[in-house]
Amino acid sequence: MEDIISLDKHYIAGTYGRFPVELVSGKGSLLQGADGKQYIDMGSGIAVSSFGTADDVWVEAVTKQLGCLQHTSNLYYTSPCALLAKALCEKTGMKKVFFSNSGAEANECAIKVARKYSAQKKGSDCYTIVTLQNSFHGRTLTTLAATGQEHYHELFQPLTPGFIHIEANDIAGLKKVVSEKKVAGILMECVQGEGGVLPVSKEFMNAAADLCKAQDIPLMIDEVQTGNGRCGALYAYMNYGIQPDIVSTAKGLGGGLPIGATLLGEKVQDVLKPGDHGSTFGGNPVCCAGALSVIERLDDAFLLDVQKKSEYIFAQLQNAPGVLEVTGMGLMIGIKTRRDVKEVLTQCRANGVLCLTAKDKLRLLPPLNIPMELLQKAVAIIKRSLI
Ligand SMILES: *Cc1c(COP(=O)(O)O)cnc(C)c1O
What we know:
Order of helices and strands: HEEEHHHEHEHEHEEEHEEEHHEEHEEEH
Number of helices: 12
Number of domains: 2
Number of strands: 17
Shape: globular
Bound molecules: pyridoxal-5'-phosphate
CATH topology of the largest domain: Aspartate Aminotransferase, domain 2
Low-confidence stretches: none
């Protein structure tokens, strides 16, 4: 057998710092290493595998579609794409959907829609997009420009112009920038994921929503990581009681297949015209069939269960020895640790639990349907690794 880790290091572009584990299979919230070790999955492939690995319902939905029509191009109609868009709109009150293949692309579409809407309404010099410091919106040159973390920008200049980053939760700062600049849109995460699992305050979110409404500025919420049940609501913005004009999502939507979606509210539903935007793979029937099966299962009872598991993790870890702070929402949780987070992560892995980090925090994103017994076992191992 070839040594996969050496092959990968030799042939794969060096963009990822991978953990020294080769994964070969899994079932539900358990993952199997090539070395025969079994792990509890507390990362879901970074919030992607909403129902864990090789979930029966999801596999059936995907394989059924795979065996009948895997791709058509967007020159034809297919049912999974239309049915998924209907389900997303009915569950959110949004009006139309554009499908792409990733979070970055979902944000690209959101930004294009906001820019076009504002250019048509307020003139072509109205292009500034306001985002937050410490945000993460993707890796393309435009979504990097939107990302409010300088270290991602180094040596990739010039990025797409027209982005301003303000401090999260600074209502006065937000009002100032909107009064001084011609603002075409505001884009933010409800919980900054890569930035350290930091929820935005209710006051700030409400102020932004009010300001956008009063000034006719599209409010864009990046639900790439927070969406699709992850935060205990179908979309995290629902926990804030606001109604965005544009919602971008990806990660957990497909349950493990690549799909991005940009949901367009009433204000912007007809902004995109033929030729304005497109994606060869966007709305792929297999990805949409998988996503539809994910979305259909995220009902109120299921989301209540997500909230209960979240409460369990918070109760177990807040004030636990070695824990400085627990932040997050639903099953998107960040833990500031007394010990170096890398050491905690390594010890968790040695004891059979795969976690993530976000900045200097331990980050937990377990499958939404992780069985309580496995969650208890994982939390006990994490607690031991913290001290
Ligand atoms: C992961 C992420 C993205 C980028 O998604 P990709 O699918 O990697 O392009 C954008 N925004 C947020 C909030 C994310 O967490």
